[in-house]
Q: What sequence folds into this?
């Protein structure tokens, strides 16, 4: 399955992230020593279900890498247009392509096992769209200071994931509806109003469950869709504001520190002892005594003197 990475956003001067990007792509903002998108590419590169990675919005000259083959698509100006261009490129690479991953470049905490979990969970059925959501409880347990926006339903408070899975035909059908939904992706209430006044009222009054909302949305658009409930907050922790950027910088720096094996201190060679053992001392003393005795035996007897003869 191919993964389409959306990296076309460039913060403007009024954007709070402009001071960090300085006119460059948001995807290239540094996070714990490497571009934000590189963390995402590392996760996709180590996923066992990803075949090709299609990056939209960046140039091939960009200094990013991936273990999987990368293909680049120029920025089409709008998110939906970038998705469509990415899907078309996937079909060009493999005409039998049916499903693709749509991945935002601003979820640097994503891990390869999370990508694999999404694919394996989604492919248990054959729906048109799999849209990920994360409960407030899961998000705030992992990232208590994330300050995410939540949609409050009858049975759960949730936020959306930034990695989803879709059938390729979704890139050619209902484009007007998708354009409006994507344009209001940061406002769940606006999205609900696009889908219908009834759905909007039910969301506002918290009188609709997640399952019922999914059914209404799918019926309105004319698709078979499914909500994928994440137990991994990392897939929903995107970078939209400076405090979220700093939060993830700190979090990933700590992970790197833990993952780096500590160098064991070099062992100093033992000092050569000048003291001899007691057994060694005894041997030396015995040897010296033996030499002394041997010398005495070898010494010729002294000649008698005149004085000794008189006696």
A:
């Amino acid at each position: 399955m191919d993964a389409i990475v959306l990296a076309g956003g460039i913060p403007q001067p009024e954007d709070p992230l402009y001071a960090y990007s300085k006119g460059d792509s948001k995807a290239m903002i540094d996070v714990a020593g490497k571009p934000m998108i590189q963390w995402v590419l590392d996760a996709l590169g180590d996923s066992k279900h990803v075949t090709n990675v299609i990056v939209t919005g960046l140039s091939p000259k960009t200094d990013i890498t991936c273990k999987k083959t990368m293909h680049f698509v120029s920025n089409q100006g709008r998110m939906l247009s970038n998705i469509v261009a990415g899907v078309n490129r996937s079909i060009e690479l493999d005409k039998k392509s049916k499903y693709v991953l749509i991945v935002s470049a601003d979820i640097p905490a994503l891990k390869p096992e999370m990508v694999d979990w999404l694919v394996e969970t989604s492919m248990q059925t054959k729906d048109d769209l799999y849209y990920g959501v994360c409960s407030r409880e899961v998000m705030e347990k992992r990232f208590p200071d994330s300050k995410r926006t939540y949609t409050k339903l009858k049975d759960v408070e949730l936020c959306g994931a930034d990695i989803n899975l879709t059938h390729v035909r979704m890139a050619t059908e209902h484009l007007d509806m998708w354009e409006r939904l994507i344009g209001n992706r940061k406002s769940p209430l606006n999205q609900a109003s696009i889908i219908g006044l009834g759905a909007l009222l039910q969301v506002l009054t918290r009188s609709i469950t997640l399952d019922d909302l999914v059914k209404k949305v799918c019926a309105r658009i004319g698709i078979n869709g499914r909500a994928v409930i994440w137990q991994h907050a990392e897939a929903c922790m995107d970078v939209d504001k400076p405090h979220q950027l700093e939060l993830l910088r700190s979090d990933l720096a700590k992970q790197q520190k833990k993952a780096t094996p500590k160098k064991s201190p070099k062992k100093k060679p033992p000092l050569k002892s000048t003291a001899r053992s007691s057994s060694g001392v005894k041997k030396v003393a015995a040897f010296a005594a033996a030499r002394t005795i041997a010398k005495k035996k070898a010494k010729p007897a002294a000649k008698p003197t005149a004085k000794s003869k008189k006696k």
